[in-house]
Amino acid sequence: MAILDRVLQSDAAVLQVSFSADPSRVAGVCADNKVRFWDPVSGTLIRTVPWRERDRRSVTLKPGATRLAAAGDDRVIKIWDLGNGELLHRLSGHEQLTGASVFSTDGKLFASSSAKEQSVRIWNLSTSRQQAKLQDGFGGASVLAFSPDSKFLVCGNFDTNLRIWDVGSGRLVHTIEDLLVAVFQMSFSPDGKYLVAAGVDRNVYVWESATWKLARKLTGQPEMISALAFSGDGRRIVTGGFDARAMANPTTAIVWDLASGETIRKVQSPRAVSSAAFATDGNAFALAARANQLHIWRASA
């Protein structure tokens, strides 16, 4: 599918973005409690799926745009099927407001955090029940990531450490202490060989998951990094950031070659990037910037 650089118009600010499994659809989670689906080639709005207006916390779009999770002041996490709008799960157990959350790749597990509880909970979505409660560090989790095989859950914490948990046993298996500042985004490569994280210091850190040793560091992002996504083949990542002086300031998004660390493409976002996603064929990526627009770019210049 040939996608050209273009801007899709939205009736409300787009907060998160994901391409569907079919790259002819791109989804945006919007500030008016609706998920909008567009054709990225024509820019046509295909359909809109609403969710409950009071659930505005911890909104998480599953990659592939098949599920949406959100929680409100009632601390109950709801998960909707974006194909038909059906409410699938109500996850109850958090005693305080929730923060970072993530779906497993296969959609069978969900993890959610609470800074005030200093804990992370893992939920089994086949039963809608809590599977494990993990004790997190000071400040709570800034970002969570499941390994593609769902064996590990990594918690990036505001205390600057990354904690790797064994999902089956709930045991802490390793703590990465390489960082001096917090990370805001984190993801495993699709093959699970690498864990990539980025945040306050503008660097992209790459660890080998077999040893949890730092393999390389990518430098050159001009702003703090707030968005990160892998291409489907795991060879490239895209990062976007925010200007600490003002979220409305223009920023730079970069497509990197993971192996070499070389820059493949740089583009300008009109303001802070809140979310990024590659199309499944890897030929394009999308950026959300909390504006009434969704930006689509070719992955190569």
Notes on the protein architecture:
By secondary structure, the protein is an all-beta fold. 0% of the residues lie in helices and 52% in strands. It contains no helices and 28 strands. It has a four-stranded antiparallel β-sheet, with no helix packed on it. The chain has a four-stranded antiparallel β-sheet with strand order 2-3-4-5, with no helix packed on it. The protein has a four-stranded antiparallel β-sheet with strand order 6-7-8-9, with no helix packed on it. The protein is globular.
Q: Descriptors for this entry?
A:
301 residues; globular; 2 domains; 4-stranded antiparallel β-sheet; Methylamine Dehydrogenase, Chain H; mainly beta
SSE blueprint:
Elements: E1 6-9, E2 14-19, E3 26-30, E4 34-38, E5 45-50, E6 57-61, E7 67-71, E8 77-81, E9 87-91, E10 101-103, E11 109-114, E12 119-124, E13 129-135, E14 141-146, E15 152-157, E16 162-166, E17 171-176, E18 183-188, E19 194-199, E20 204-208, E21 213-218, E22 224-230, E23 236-242, E24 251-257, E25 263-269, E26 275-278, E27 284-288, E28 293-298
Antiparallel strand pairs: 1-28, 2-3, 3-4, 4-5, 6-7, 7-8, 8-9, 10-11, 11-12, 12-13, 14-15, 15-16, 16-17, 18-19, 19-20, 20-21, 22-23, 23-24, 24-25, 26-27, 27-28
